[in-house]
Amino acid sequence: MAIRNKLYFASDIHLGALNYTSSREREDRFVRWLDSIKHDANELFLVGDVFDFWFEYKTVVPKGYIRFLGKLAELVDLGIKLYLFKGNHDMWIFDYFVQELGATIISNELVIERQGKKLYIHHGDGLGPGDGKYKILKKVFRSRVCQWLFERLHPNFGVGLANYWSGHSRLANAAADEHKLFENEWLVTFARETLQKQHYDYLIFGHRHIPLVIQLNSQSQYINLGEWIFNSSYAVMADGQIQLLHFEKDHAENT
Ligand SMILES: [Mn+2]
């Protein structure tokens, strides 16, 4: 039996996105990854936008993703601790995964100490300067009133509308990305500002879909987990060091 002592991080799998075939291929790939880490993972952090859209009605959840959910259940039953972050696409995760998977749901940031290192983890939406429109939208979308109203729409209509919106916002984000250089990343700016107030060894985000490691100062690194539509990137922490890797590609990316 291998020792379970590693922490694994992944985000932005966007299950459900593009179309059924694309989503199933990604789901199968992600399940293979989960299978490959189950022997030495101690904790698993899914850092938001796991689903391209998710909503839990009082007694009903969206169809699909059974292989993924089954594999997660297997890992949890092996004793692996699961953290599920809300992203901007799947902020409507409530207590289904708490009940079924014993997951810890993280609404905003998670600050933890592991292996002698201090970690700050956040999906990455609505942080840093700018993006005022989204920050307002996030407040509205996360409000109980808005959720209550959405729950009253028939799912054939409500989920259809949400999927349209989700595709639209993914495309809009992709277009905005092309105009930004890595060093000018707002999340990097946010990370630098956060470090002025408080020391962290690792600041870990998703959301930007760009797998990236930036050395912020002699002790602190910014890590973006990338995404699973094109990259299959993830991070692993062992012996106090975090590496950003690509699943099923023979090269490893470390900076
Ligand atoms: Mn996102």
TrEMBL record:
GO molecular function, one term: hydrolase activity
Top-level taxonomic group: Bacteria
EC number(s) recorded for this UniProt protein: 3.6.1.54
Enzyme class: hydrolase
Pfam families listed in its UniProt record: Metallophos
Residue stretches in coiled coil: none
Domain Calcineurin-like phosphoesterase: 7-211
Keywords per UniProt: Cell inner membrane, Cell membrane, Hydrolase, Manganese, Membrane, Metal-binding
Protein's recorded name: UDP-2,3-diacylglucosamine hydrolase
Taxonomic source organism: Mucilaginibacter terrae
